[in-house]
Fold:
Amino acid sequence: MPEKYVRETDSLETSVNKIELLLKKDYGISGRAVALLLLQEDSEIIQLVKNKEPENFEKIRDVINTAKSYYTDPLSYIISIRRQEEANRIIQRTINFEEITSVSFREKLSRLMINPFTGIPVMLLILYYGIYKFVGEFGAGTVVDFIETDIFENNINPWIIKFADTAVPWHVIRDLFTGEYGIITLGIRYAVALILPIVTTFFIAFAIIEDTGYLPRLALLIDRLFKKIGLTGRAVIPIVLGLGCDTMATMVTRTLPSKRERIIATILLALAVPCSAQLGVILSLLEGNPRGLWIWLLVLCLVFLLVGFLSSKILQGESPSFYMEIPPLRLPKLSNVFIKTYTRVKWYFLEIFPMFIFASFLIWAGRLVMLFDILIKILEYPIRLIGLPDEAAAAFLFGFFRRDYGAAGLYDIKKAGHLTGNQLVVACITLTLFLPCIAQFLMNVRERGWKTGVGISFFILLFSFSTGFIVNLILNAMGINL
Amino acid sequence: MNFLKKIFNLNGKNNSCCGAREKGDDHGGKKIVIVGSPNVGKSLLFNRLTGSYVTVSNYPGTTVEVSRGKTEIGGRTFDVIDTPGTYSLFVITEEERVARNILLSEKPDVVLHVVDSKNLERMLPFTLQLIEARLPLILVLNIIDEAEKIGMKIDFQYLEKELKIPVTGTNSTSGQGIDILKGRIEEYARKIC
Structure:
């Protein structure tokens, strides 16, 4: 409240002047400041003045009391309001907000990403180019073809098989290592030729998306929807990761704060989030059948929301809260992307690799004791129920161990002309919902314990076939022929 | 240099400022006191000015810690005192009381009011209060880089003319503007005394 802006007749200002004249001692600050503090009835200052100049203190007290009687509000309030008004007046002429184009563009982009109307198309665009094009077509297509066909199938496998044939006389042992599902010919090849390129390209895409600061915005965009299914925006990260590999995403559910959220996310990942290997397979199966592809997508989204909603109702627990800092958007740094990708691929590979070898061993053992033939016979019943030919049972069982094998089986059946459009869509839906692979089953057990892990698997088994059954029923009842 | 004239004029009316300087001269060293709200980078600025010659001790009779250090500007040694976060001279907390006591009793030669440039509007009333108190004030607009980032343009010349005190912009994290601030302190200390 500098003096020059105050009217002469202002009673507060008059009181300040009166007190200032009465103050004779040095207080280290101006008399005006002391007078204002006295009028605000600062007890320490009052005491100080009382001690320093008791002779004038009564007069000062009178001035204060008179000033108070002029106003209904406390003087401290009036003084700070006046000071703020003065500050605002100065600020108005001091500060200008200029439109800095890069900043406002960034801000606009950020708002575009969070707003539901524009954010969802942006999300789909990023998923299309980041996941479908880069991971699906380039990683799972081009790179896998090169490593699998050119390196393994044409060079390593024939050599290893030939070597084993001459070096190992026992057929059973040979089968374990170099047979159709052998540790080297399947386990290691699968891990190195299929999973490694898919996961690496996925992690590159993920690191770029992460480094731009998009993920917190996606989390914010999805948060409201996820709250309905017992999750929060935080679950966006494992769910998006699941599009790359569900097994790894299940591991990442560790970042979710409550046990309830972790279980819901695990169920959704195992059931309704197709991994990149699955996506590649489904897309090639439904090629030339766009209506079938849309039905597949629709059913999957419905299942995701329905199961999430139901499990959030069944599983007891507090509704989660969500708070996330939104960092600024920026261009990704190459070194960041490289380091993130490298550490993740390394960590992931060390965790996953033993599981593939173990899976090869399980298949070998299962075939050895004829367990597989029994399982295929059992699977034929639900397969028939959902309207598929018996041959599909083997595809489903092996699909559980090795996704591309299961799909190849379906592909052969399709090529042989034994599958109608409807059957194909039903098979794709069921196969997507079906447990993605043995590695994820093992991961579920490891992360959630035997009881929950096995429980989730049974639920998924039941649910995937029920959904296939219902979809088949609806398609036939409505007379739709795809 | 309008503000200097003003301050010279003020000295005639009120001798608190001059008294402070005389006392300061007796000790040889001059005093810089840093004030401002919490989280505006006061301590970082203090570290930037003082380097390693720092003592931290409780303010007499309280549990509030006050850092004191020394800095050399233009061949002159200054004692630098970092005060606890304060929003106003009208004190509420014990920290604020300590900060005010330092302002009242230490007879500073230069007071640096450090503010967060982004929130200048909220912090300027305290600046006005310090000016009213006729403390030898320099307004330090800290975190200036962030204000610039959000497109804020601050008219320093207008602000200096309006407030009649030196105003400088700094970024105590990167050290940007510290040299200019030192220059202003030197100029200020030399011209008033």
